Batch of 3 targets.
Target 1
Amino acid sequence: MRAIIIEDEKPAAEKLQKAILKADTGIDVVATLSSVKSAIEWLEENDMPNLLFMDIELSDGLSFKIFDAVNITSPVIFCTAFDEYWQEAFEHNSIDYLLKPVRQEKLDAALKKYDKLKQHFSADVRQFLQSRQQQLADYKKRFLVKRGTDYISVKTDDIAYFYATHKLVCMIDQKNQKFILDQSLSEIEKQLDPSMFYRVNRKYLVHLNAIRKIRTFPKSKLQLELEPEINEDIIISQDNVTAFKEWMSS
């Protein structure tokens, strides 16, 4: 299998290549590219590799610019130090999003995912990517909310959590700003990507990145600590613990 690495830090690229070969000696890293410009030039002049390992913030811009110049049909495993690009990454052929420093077990799991997808789609993962991109396109990307006499647009990846109170639903963003919505939690839940938002109980619908800490709680329950902090116990029932753990580790 042919793969390329797009990474502007030489030590990180060398470490990633060693980890790739440790995970699968059958992977041939045919090129290591350090910029948007060099990646575009290489992809225009060579056959498309089977798999790309791609950093996001490169020396001459975000790697997403490569997709604007080249029709990339191969799946991508993004390896980045930043977690704020996850949604855009999954709109650009991503099958996994690994945070630096990339742990060997996470890389192994990502490559196993690639193998499973390849087998499922008869060595062609493009069907999966197209399906995933369409699925993401169907999820709500922003909410139009009212602040005073004005309306503002809030991106879904800027939302920390939603909660129901006194027959109202409130939305809290990452800056701890509160907005009141005119939809039920169930209606909102259907509009969001289930890989990023989870209905932890009847009252709370939380974003993955808003979960700061998970504690054990009496009677086999779990207690969540959210960011921004809220002065209330967020409890996951015993019946919901298994599903929640599977969601957190997926």
Note: The domain at 2-137 is CATH 3.40.50.2300 (Rossmann fold).
Target 2
Amino acid sequence: MTVIYMPKQSNGTVHSSKDLNQLIDYVMNPEKTNDFEYVSGQNILDIHSTCDEMLATRTMAIALKNKPRKNEIYGYHFVQSFSPDDHLTPEQVHEIGCKTMKEYLGNSAEFIIATHTDKPHLHNVRPDRVLSQVV
């Protein structure tokens, strides 16, 4: 059984560049992702520069059409967990996560998704940047 949720501490929202950077560091933790083997991105040139790329997109969007807002959302944090009873491999969980997020967000969103393998229940963790996309 799969469960998708937003973490309670943040209600799934990120409100600063510092918090976005911390979230991305947590998501991409090499100890949790088999040394980045289970990290993928969409509209990200290099997963290791994800935060810089997302913040650059935000800056460009503000310059072109948006104004920064008070309490702006810099991104979202979702977790997709799988039961150990599902008997899925990390590769299968990662593929399911990538397909789910692409279907959910479409082609214009920036995101990374990482499959964490450090617990008995495999889970995908994803920060994304949707609100300031330049379309």
Note: The longest helix spans residues 90-105.
Target 3
Amino acid sequence: MTHRPAPTDIAIHPLIAGRWSPRAYADRPVPHAQVVALLEAARWAPSAYNVQPWRFLVFEKSQDREAFDRAFALLVPFNQKWNEHAQVLIAVLADTLTAKGTVNPSASYDAGAAAMALLLQAHAQELAAHAMGGFDAIGLAKTFAIPERFAALSMISVAHHGDARALPAELAERELAPRARLPLEAIAHFGAWSDTAQHLR
């Protein structure tokens, strides 16, 4: 299933409503040109003072299988299971320091914006992309000699959409379950903080 628009209460852009995090992947290569387009989308994300603190470490199964396998080994076992047919892994990094060597407090926020741009571009290209926190960030830094100033925030896997029925039963159920989010009144406060929103969590 590739088309799962969010059941929004208010109409939003189809690109945003349509983006989701699949786990069913097809076992066929993603062209390098499409991967580059994902990174180009991320490049144009907004950032404080236009510092652009995002960095991406990209592993393409069809281009460098050895490097891909080393990155794949850093995923937690649960994520390894459903990423069997993933074609690309992209580590999202944030440069935590400014050019002056001081801490950049918005680095993670800005890198997250770039990652979201990448995910939206993937959806626009009819690719499946899923961001994960379940990976060994320390192992990533050691394995690929990433300087200490760069924080590994997430790992995004990319592939062509596959058949959810090919997933293990538990994962197939998640894949096909209705999409849901907290109600708007639980996350948005207008004019002042409201305890009501907290109680809705």
Note: The first strand starts at residue 25 and ends at 26.
